[in-house]
Amino acid sequence: MAMLDVKNLSKSFGSLEVLKDISFDVEKGEVVAIIGPSGSGKSTLLRCINQLERADSGVINVCGTDMLVKNAKGKTVYADAKTLRDIRLKTGLVFQNFNLFPHMNVLRNITEAPVCVLREDKSKSRERAMALLKKMGLESKDKSYPCELSGGQQQRVSIARALALNPEILFFDEPTSALDPELTGEILKVIKELAAEGMTMVIVTHEMAFARDVADKVIFMENGYIVEMGAPDQLFGENASDRVQQFLKRFNS
After folding, report:
1. ABC transporter domain location, by residue (predicted)?
2. What is the pLDDT of residue 253?
3. Which residues contact 128 (CB under 8 A, 6 or more apart)?
4. pLDDT the model gives residue 239
5. What is the pLDDT of residues 51-80, one digit of tens each?
6. Exposed, middle or buried: residue 105 (CB in 10 Å: 0-12, 13-18, 19+)?
7. 158 and 191 Cβ atoms separated by less than 8 Å
8. Would you report the helix, strand and coil content of the chain in percent, each value rounded to 5?
9. Distance between CA 2 and CA 86 in Å, rounded?
10. 216-219 — which CB contacts under 8 Å span 24+ positions?
11. Nearest residue to 66 via CA among 82, 81, 52, 83
12. Positions of the chain with pLDDT under 70
C-alpha cells in the first residue's frame, strides 16, 4: 500500500486554479522529486498534503489513513480533528526559508515539538536532538541561536527538527532555494544520506542533477497540472516530452 495516495486533487484561490486534477502516489522508501517552472503549483501541493492549505476537491490518503475523501453525496470532506492531528504527526515539512524560532536556541528548536506535542520526556528528547545534531554535523551548535548560524546550518537544524518527530514521510519545499551554491551542497548531501537510509521523501526542487540522481520518480508540473511523471531516465532522457526537454535546456546550457 502506498504511503501517500493523492487522487484528483484541485485547489483554487478565488478564480485562480492552482492545482488541477492532481493524482500520484508514493511508496514506502521512495523518493519523489517534483520539478517545473515557478508558479506551477508545486509548493501549494505540498501545503495541501501537509494541511497548511485546504483543498477544494479530491482524495488524500496518508499512511493508510484517509485525510480527504468524498462522502456518500460526492462532497469532498476532511477527516475529524483527531485523525487530522494523527496524520500531521506522520509527516514532516522542511521549508525553504528555515522557519526556525529566533528566540529559541538550536536544541530547544528541535525539542520543543516532541516535548510539547508528543509529551516526550525532556531528557529523552534532548538525547535524540543531540544525536540528530551529530548526524547533521552540528553537535557543537546546540546552544547557538538561529541568527548565529549560516543558512546551510539553519536548514540542517530545520531538517533535524522535522526528524525529531519521527515522521513516516518527509517533505521538502525547495530546501536549497534560499542558499548560495556552496551551502546548497551541504543540504543535498544530508538529503542523499536520508534517501540511502530509506526515508520516504517528496522533494520540490530546482536542482535538476540532484533530482536525476536521487529520485526514484520525477513529476513535472506546469500551470497546475502534472504534465509528465516517470522514472528519472524517462524525464531526463530523450524520450521525455518536448515541453520537459524545453524546460531542462536552461539547466543544461
Report:
1. 4-248
2. 52
3. 114, 164
4. 85
5. 999 999 999 999 999 999 988 888 899 999
6. middle
7. no
8. 40, 25, 35
9. 17
10. 216/30, 216/31, 216/32, 217/26, 217/30, 217/31, 217/32, 217/33, 218/32, 218/33, 218/34, 218/35, 219/24, 219/32, 219/33, 219/34, 219/35, 219/36
11. 83
12. 252-253
Name the CA dihedral angle for 94, 64, 78, 100, rounded to a multiple of 10 degrees.
Answer: -10
Supply 177's cell numbers. Answer: 532555494
Q: What angle do CA 176, 213, 207 make, to 5 degrees?
A: 25
Residue 141's pLDDT is: 96
Distance of CA 175 to the CA centre of its chain: 9
- The rounded distance, in Å, linking the Cα atoms of 233 and 51 is 32
Q: What SS3 state is found at 140?
A: helix
Asked whether 224 and 43 are in contact (CB, 8 A), the reply is no
Q: In the structure grid, which three cell numbers stand for residue 59, read together?
A: 482524495
pLDDT, residue 179, reads 81
Query: Residue ranges per domain, the chain?
Result: 102-166
Query: Residue 98: left (phi > 0), alpha (psi -120 to 50), or beta?
Result: left
Measured N-to-C along each axis, helices 122-135 and 106-116 cross at an angle, to the nearest 10 degrees, of 130
Query: Which three cell numbers, joined as nine digits, stand for 30?
Result: 521512495
Contact 9, 60 (CB under 8 A): yes
Q: What pLDDT shows up at residue 46?
A: 97
| Cα(166)–Cα(241) distance, integer angstroms | 38
CA 94 to chain centre: 6
User: d(Cα 147, Cα 44) in Å, to the nearest integer?
Assistant: 28
Q: With the C-alpha atoms ordered 224, 228, 231, 233, is the resulting torsion angle positive or negative?
A: negative
